[in-house]
Amino acid sequence: MKAFELELRHIRYVVTAARFGSFRKASSRLGVRESTISRQVRNLEDGLGSSLFLRKRSGVSLTQAGSIFVEHAQAALNEIDRAVGDVGTIGRGRSGTVRVGLSSPLATGFLGELLIRFCRQHEAVQLEFVEGTHTQLFEDLERGNLDIAFMAAPLDTGSLATKRLWSEDVFVVLPESDALTKKSEIAWSDIRLKQFLVTEATPGRDIEAFVFRHLSSIGYSPRIQRDRVSSQTLMQLVAIGRGISIASQSVAETAFPGITYRRLEGCAVPFSAVWSTENDNPPFRRLLSLTSGQAATA
């Protein structure tokens, strides 16, 4: 077809004419002059080297070649219409994927409620979750591998945007046999000589930095033991007396055998959403809007 460039409109002319059996009716349906449809179909036939229609005074009917062409052309048009519809749905934020980074467990509270609301309002949107340290999540956001991350503040976000959303109390994780369980709240001075257990996995590094920052501020160098275990195994290590740990409120809402949580006196951690201002993913924008709205009423 060197002399004739096939366009989508030409395919629609043929399919519509075949459907109505008439160039005149196709003209009325498509809002295009009958002469234009007739001429373009003739050019298409010349380019294909085969007639698609038998032309009669009463209208047109498909040749064998025309029937084959229309069968494939109709399937192609259906796929194109489906593609346009799917892209439009994503563009309106009604479907698609939002990649969410986390530096702490979901549990309940602000983030849990936010995601429940979002999933109820946008059932066709898929949420994908990644856990990581602050550094890992920042890198993923900057590279476009994440749409949004929820993490503890304070934060040095650089070029990334941030919005403070909620705060959580901090808890000391103790074995039930520890004498400190008799206290309703615990001060940093009470645990200055304790051994702290953290995981190599998320959020172990962040907890380690948190402990170091607070104990060094009162003149102590913390004893920190890093173990390459899961958070659940870490709790079991605390339960058998290997040391203590630190947990956010969302973690403290989960019960573990042999474990007691006590609030850390005067200590709360603010949490923020972090994202790239260059991200124009529509379903992400809907999540961000819902996040801001919930924060305003929290």
TrEMBL record:
Q: Does this entry carry the keyword Transmembrane helix?
A: no
What is the annotated signal peptide range for this record?
none
Transmembrane residue ranges: none
Q: Which UniProt keywords apply?
A: DNA-binding, Transcription, Transcription regulation
What molecular functions are annotated in GO for this chain?
A: DNA binding; DNA-binding transcription factor activity
Matching entries from PROSITE patterns are given as: HTH_LYSR
- Respond yes or no to whether keyword Repeat is given for this record: no
What PANTHER family does the annotation carry? HCA OPERON TRANSCRIPTIONAL ACTIVATOR HCAR (PTHR30346:SF0), TRANSCRIPTIONAL DUAL REGULATOR HCAR-RELATED (PTHR30346)
Similarity annotation: Belongs to the LysR transcriptional regulatory family.
Source organism per entry reads Roseicella frigidaeris
Taxonomy of origin reads:
Bacteria, Pseudomonadati, Pseudomonadota, Alphaproteobacteria, Acetobacterales
Q: Where is the HTH lysR-type domain?
A: 6-63
Descriptive protein name: LysR family transcriptional regulator
Pfam families of this UniProt entry? HTH_1 (PF00126), LysR_substrate (PF03466)
What do the Gene Ontology cellular component annotations say?
protein-DNA complex
